[in-house]
Amino acid sequence: MKALIAGGGIAGPVTAMALQRAGIDAEVFEAHRPGGGEAGSYLTVASNGLDALRAVGADTPVLAAGFPTPTNVLLSGTGRRLGSASNGGRLADGTVSHTIKRARLYQALHEEAAGRGIRIEHGRRLAGAEPAAGGGVAVSFEDGTRATGDLLIGADGVHSPTRRLIDPAAPGGRYVGLVNFGGYTPASAGAAEPGVWHMIFGRRAFFGHVADPAGGTVWFANVPRPAVSAAERAATTDEQWQRQLVELFAGDAGPASDLIAGGYLELAGDSTHDLPSVPVWHRGPMVIVGDAAHAPSPSSGQGASMAAEDAVVLAKCLRDLPDIPQALAAYEGLRRKRVERIVAQGARTGSAKTPGPVGRALRDLALPLVFKLLVTDRSMAWIHQHHIDWDTPVSSPPQRV
Question: Which helix (H) or strand (E) segment is 339 a member of?
Answer without folding.
Answer: helix 324-351
